[in-house]
Amino acid sequence: MHTGTTPDAPAPQAARWRAGVRRLDARRWLAAVQLLAAVRPLPRPHRRPAPVRPSRPEQLRALVAVLDEAVAAQTPADEAVAACGEPGPASRGTARDCGQQSIAVHRLHARLQDLGTTDPDLVAAQAHAVRLLAYDLWMLRASMNLAFTVRPVDRTEAARLRLNGLGRPADDLRRLRDSLRAELRDT
Question: In angstroms, how far apart are the furthest CA atoms of the chain?
């Protein structure tokens, strides 16, 4: 604003010119779009056919395959958790093993979540297996937190010494895998 002008004064010539150019450009753009649409109509999106859902036996096979890997990964994860509970200070190797097992279980957890089962019974089994693997992940993390704490106190040290493995959820996952595998054999 220039000195001595009032707020209600008209906008300077340059500002009015820019506003006019903007309106003109918008009008030209709209006219060009309308002209192109008249000359060449816009393509309609093609409808893709619905994806074919895998059959129940295929879904069951995929679920059992991931559960086989998860059960196989539980043995080293169980050993890593038990190593965190051994008396004395935890070693670097224990930290490395816990980290590697945590990564492996996390990847299996993600693969299990992404299976895309649609059969209601298999969806329930998949959700149960996801919860059991989430427990394994939590157990690995909690055991590392207890074993590698900066300021150990008596209460956390006592909890760490009680660590002896993954526990009952690992057995539950194995039983779930075995029941699904038996169902797969029957089909």
Answer: 94
List, in order, residues 6 or more apart from 72 with CB less than 8 Å away.
Answer: none
For the entire predicted model, the pTM comes to: 0.69
- CA dist., res. 57 & res. 53, Å (int): 11
Alpha-helix runs per DSSP H in 114-153: 120-147
Report the distance separating Cα 57 and Cα 121, nearest Å.
12
Beta carbons within 8 Å of 109's beta carbon, 6+ residues apart? 130, 133, 134, 137
Q: Are 90 and 83 in contact (CB under 8 A)?
A: yes
Residue 89 has pLDDT above 70, yes or no: yes
Cβ partners under 8 Å of residue 148, min gap 6 = 90, 95
**Is the separation of the CB atoms in 57 and 184 below 8 Å?**
yes
